[in-house]
Structure formats: structure tokens, C-alpha cells
Amino acid sequence: MPPDPPVATSGIPALDDALGGLLWGDNIIFEVEDGADTAPFYRAISATDPWSGRIAVAFSDGFAPPGFIRIDGRGREPAELADEVMRVSRASGAHDLVLVDDLDLAIAQWGDEGAFRFFARTCPPLLRIGAIAYWTLGPGTGRGHLRDRVAGLTQCVLALGGERLVVIKAEGRPPKVIGTAPVSYTHLRAHETVLDLVCRLLLEK
Length: 205
Hints:
Elements: H1 13-19, E1 27-32, H2 39-46, E2 53-58, E3 69-72, H3 78-92, E4 96-102, H4 103-129, E5 132-137, H5 144-153, E6 156-161, E7 164-170, E8 183-184, H6 185-190, H7 194-203
Parallel strand pairs: 1-5, 1-6, 2-3, 2-4, 4-5
Antiparallel strand pairs: 6-7, 7-8
Helix pairs in contact: 2-7, 3-4, 4-5
């Protein structure tokens, strides 16, 4: 029996081709190196439209995508914030898009253990209800143990650095996708839509 077709798109065809699309329940971690930027990837998925609800979890003033329900994580305890995210997501229905601000900011607020508690209390329930969530581990998260714990819970890990996005982990996909570099900005130029062009120009600023 052939595999089920992709049920959601990242908004970037090369990434969809590598992963076979985004599966409902995917939590996608971007491990970001110095100089790399997840904003174009967040913008690309925000421009797609299969979502029953859109939620942004912010740890900074600047993280407020248009059209999203914004949940401010500052001054909140990890469990309290996680429960609020899940309450809002369940109220929206299945197939939400959840964008989470850089976890380095959560670490600055709660420390490593508090940030992990928030992630561990949020990631598995989002999987169970079929939401898709984007998370970022910035270059300041240079703690291998914390990265390993987070990666152990999530469904997809994508390393973003230089000009390529490399697949580190991709549950529910063939093993051959691991280690692939599905998105190069040279490749995007050859196949770019208007949205891809916007993403490239943002990256090249």
C-alpha cells in the first residue's frame, strides 16, 4: 500500500520534497548556527492555509506574526505556559500551526531545566492532537545535553547553517532522508515562486 500523501506543506517545495511534506503532529526543531535565520521558514509556512488555528508563543516583543493568537511567555512558569498553549490549541481544533520563539530566550528566563520542562509538557500533546509546531534552538543553546533531550522528544530536527538546511531527524520518513541537504538557496533560485523569492531576499539582507 502506498504511503499516505503529505497532509501539510512547509511552503518551501524543496523541503517538502525531502520530507514528503509535513505530517500532522510534527514538531520541527531548527538548530540554528551563527548567521542563519529561521524567519523565512516561519514566514513560508505562515503563508500556507490548511490551519484551523494559528498560535505564536513569544518570549520577546518582536515575535508576533500577523493573524496569530499571541501567547506571551514572559513572566510565566513553564507548566502554566504549556497548559495555556494546549488550552488555546484544543479550543481551535485539530490541525493548528504553532510557532515558538527562540528557546534561548526561554532558557534565559527559566534556565535549561525550565525550558526543557516547557518543551516536554508541550511537544507530546501537540503531537497527539495533530498540530504542527516550529521551534528554534539558537546558536546560544550550545549545551549538547539539552539539545539531545529536546531532539529525543521531537519528530524532526533540521540544522540550518550557511546556505543549507540539513535533515538530522525525521520520524515517519525513510532513513535515506537523514543527512540530506534539501534546501540550498541556489536551488531555491532555480525553482522559486514569489514566496521563495521573498524568503531568499530576506536571507540575503
